[in-house]
Membrane protein insertase YidC
Amino acid sequence: MENKRVILAVVLSLAVLVGWNFLFPAKPQAPKTDTPTQTEAPTAQAPAPAAQRAETLPAFAPTPGRKVTVNTPLYTAVFNSAGGVLEQFSLKGYRQTIAPDSPLVDLVNAKAQLKAPLGLIVNGTPTWQNVEWSVEGGDLKLDAAGAGSLSFTGRLGDTLIRRTLTFSGASYLIDEKLSLSNTGAAPVKDRLSLTVAVDRLSAADDSYNPTQAAFYDTGLELFSNEKKLAEGMTDEKPVQWGAVMSNYFLVGIIPEAEGLRGKAKFEDEIFRVALDKDGIEIPAGGRTDLDVRYYLGPKDPKFLAQAPHNLAAAIDYGWFDFIAKPLLKLLHFFYDYVGNYGVAIILLTVLIKGLFWPLSHKSYKSMEQMKRLQPLLTQLREKHKDDRQKMNEEMMQLYKTYKVNPAGGCLPMIVQIPVFFGLYQALLHSIELRHAPFIAHLPFTNMIWLADLSAKDPYYITPLVMGATMFLQQKMTPAPGDPTQAKVMLLMPVIFTFMFLNFPSGLVVYWLVNNVISIAQQYWMLNKKS
């Protein structure tokens, strides 16, 4: 096998892997059941027939209850006493755009509010409707060391519902102690749904940062296809938590009880997730308690680590998790010194290239050896163009005679691919890069440029320059003997440029700097005197 054929295979594989999210956004798993009859926040009722239009629960009307506000250093939350549902949850450390006066990110905006986030459904009945509620406690203002609670109490038939929510000034977690008391003379068996509802957490057409329904048991399951979610889906096996999330934010339910099933639906432009618990038996005069935690905040590892049941698994670095995490720590290490994530990415790229310098050296040396053999290889192709087996045998003998490994130029590249994908995933899921500037304005102008490393280059300058560097690399690399193969190789910069046009600019900066260093190294290797 010729060196160039191996390199072509590696490059094409890299193109497929890098471009997979762009060309084929995360494919949701097929729904496991039909749409439940109560789809506003799915319950454990039997699935409706496929031809039957699913009913929609009435929207939440926030006016009957009074508002209670919780203020912490991290967020402002507004609850409605009618059921303890959320009307607002604004994150104080995050804005919607890079503009200094941009509104804060509100995980429960006016659209999501109509679906009663954090609302409970008991026996198919939304408790925020037709139930009288009272609230104990008033507005809370907590400092970083503070904690406080609110209690909401309501009655649904013979079931007395008491929700006690506890807040911490240093966490995005909300602890709930939920009590269901049977005030009747006969035992009851209740069915409970815990729900969250969220507007899109990212742009509808953002294939690199989709809003998804997520469930976790022993592994992470993601569902982002809105057409499929509009039909409703159920995860039949028990889950440890369920959430709506993007690359940067998460709104989730984390119950302590076992055996809850996850359900999700995309309805009226809102993502809804529910966790259902069947068969809650309460004897006459008895009570059943359930501990639940809710997380509403950024996908910041230090805060996710505070949550139970491995909520930190919501940050999914894929197969190369073991590489992505240390690279991210190195990125933060450089940032602590330079105070600019763009510069930190460049320093990290230089470090990685330095670590792989011996492998790259070996690769370029092999390329040079192959370049010297090209005339002989061309002669063999002409001589045995009608006998491919004979041609391959003589080529292998030629490699053996000159002690050249035809795969030597690409094997070092294969070793580096996991590092690339590890860093790719680390940068893609790093909330620190959201709204982090590199070069905020185009030099000598007031035009906003790389002011957000999580967004694409608005003028496509960096991906176009990156494509040019790839083309230069191709010209510096010995050309394949096969003309068709040579043309395919020259197309690779075009393919990569197209894919990188809408990449987050932080990723493009990494790839561009990597290419520039590679060109310098390759030039030095191929032109140095022996």
The chain has two domains: 3-21+323-527, 31-309. The mean pLDDT is 83. The first helix runs from residue 3 to 23. The radius of gyration is 29 Å.
